Amino acid sequence: EVMARRHDSVITEHSSVPILPTLLAERGRADEAIETAAAWAHSRLDAGAVQGAAAAHVLWADLLLRAQRPVEALDVVGRADSLARSINEPGTAIEAARLRGLALEELGESGPAITVLEEAARMANADGDVEAVLETHVALGRLLASQGRTSEALEAWEAAARQAEATTMHLDLDFDRVRYRERRLAPYEAALLALAERRSQSDPAELLA
Question: Does residue 140 contact residue 118 with C-beta atoms inside 8 Å?
Answer without folding.
Answer: yes
